[in-house]
């Protein structure tokens, strides 16, 4: 029992296996030091200039890897995990006494983010196991699409049967699409009344979906539907999605006693918002959208807690709100918690996850490590915030964490349309002029990873955060289905991250004395992703080219120094494999993920690194490329079969293909050298490590060769990429040979 006489609402435990991990990390560290020592003491003789240069590069790369390894150890030093006591929460708070929760859903493009998916997210969060009169759901539509608006109207209607159905059948997950997909073969046949209802609701969902998709196909809302709601009139004044007034429509007014489901229970408030956009004003992407929502919601429902999700992050655990409240409302520790972050999980992951989409180890382990070091970063979706802290409040010892109870006056005088008019002004472009919004208030502007920056600044204001990863995943999103989408997404992340590192918000400076050093270093783990490109590029090209030219860059196989390299590499692999499998992955999945790390480092990170430098020198401007959440049938089929998708020409593919062939040629030339030499054993002894490295790289690149030379489908490597990369690779090897 806590000192205040209350049983805690959550408990925390340390990860298992730390007793093993720490000595292991120390041993790898020693091996790395041996490598440094070797590089310094065995520096090539004066006359071997080229070898000397190659050597220095190897040394610098290894210094970087050693440094980066140490940061990853800091992240893993003491991961913590939490569990909640929801029964204690419900015995301490009657339903009426629970706080209100505002839920923000962001969407930005009706084509890349289809409205049916968006409303599935909306319906799933409306159906939380939580008093509906305490919930308000806001959809921010940066695409300003009347189709999305229409879909939301349909969702408002469908919620009247969906919510009671969820309650009655204890439906899980509460996104109709996923629920009906999962239960397709298990129609409740035993109880006929139940089965009837199931069929009825399913049919009604499918009809709705058909109507929405039908209208999406025509590309225009028919006149008779336009007449059904006053909201459509707003689109008469929209000249384009980049130039329009704010559109704010309260589709379900929770204060209205008439707003109820078919069982007569209240419905959550549901609001559509397309904030004002004008070419003259920068809209600040998702951060701008969220800030508009914070203000608009404060005038409509003003709940003390806010959940924000991306439009593809359907709720998959109807108890997630109660779980989050167990942290915020804990009498002893709750006061200092600013946000509770859930992991990002996906429902379209194949068995071996070709693109390493689930970021398994980051989600299962590294964020728990952040938590142990002071609190997880904010990852932009699936996160519950205190409204006050999101709006810029600093932590004070005497902060009580109290909230005003909701004005539960369901017959309030202000009509919905008056409220709409009043709140609209808060979403206008000029509202933020000369205010602290985007700086000290709300989500921070100026970064393509607004989430990381905002979370960091909240932590630097003295707050703690919590990472909560329950058995039953809280949210399920849609992961990119093509290699290019994946690489572009990671370019955005690593670029935004690296920009933060180079800005005044660098955690080592900005966080100094504000957050613990171990948390500052944990942040560096992510913020320095992009920098890995340099050392990795060096390691995947130079040793192979040196093999072609006959330059030694590693110790001979017969030399004891080889042990330190072998140990560092093998132990590193075993650690990452062990972590991956413990986090629920397969061995194939691990190989795929390792391959993707290599691909990312040589493409996404490289471009992120160079673009950051260009942005800093004022030559380029950062943007937000939205991740596509749909794919055509053929691409989806290949994705299901775990075949890598290339298809469209891109610089990233040219780089990948060039590196893959460069290693293939080097490997072949290396083998030729062994075979044609008089004493093959000698060559093997000298170049053993280089040959192993080169062969591993060839092995990792197998899907690239397949895409270049063997595939015939439309997902193969485009021929322009093939030709270019052959030329580059041959050129590089020829230069190396002579
Ligand atoms: O101008 C914009 C651009 C994007 N979005 C929304 O932002 C969300 C995330 O965009 P997405 O294209 O799905 O990017 P992801 O890479 O999947 O997003 C991850 O990375 C982002 C930071 O780069 C975080 O904001 C997200 O929460 C996190 O899921 C989506 O709901 C979009 O609709 C907007 O509302 N307005
Ligand atoms: Mn996304």
Automatic annotation (TrEMBL):
First-listed, main subcellular location of the protein, grouped into a coarse class: membrane
Protein name: Cellulose synthase-like protein E6
InterPro entries assigned: Cellulose_synth, Nucleotide-diphossugar_trans
Cellular localisation: Endomembrane system
Keyword Transcription regulation on entry: no
Alphabetical keyword list: Cell wall biogenesis/degradation, Glycosyltransferase, Membrane, Transferase, Transmembrane, Transmembrane helix
Pfam (any one): Cellulose_synt
Transmembrane intervals: 20-40, 52-77, 527-548, 646-671, 683-705
Source species, domain of life: Eukaryota
Organism name: Hibiscus sabdariffa (roselle)
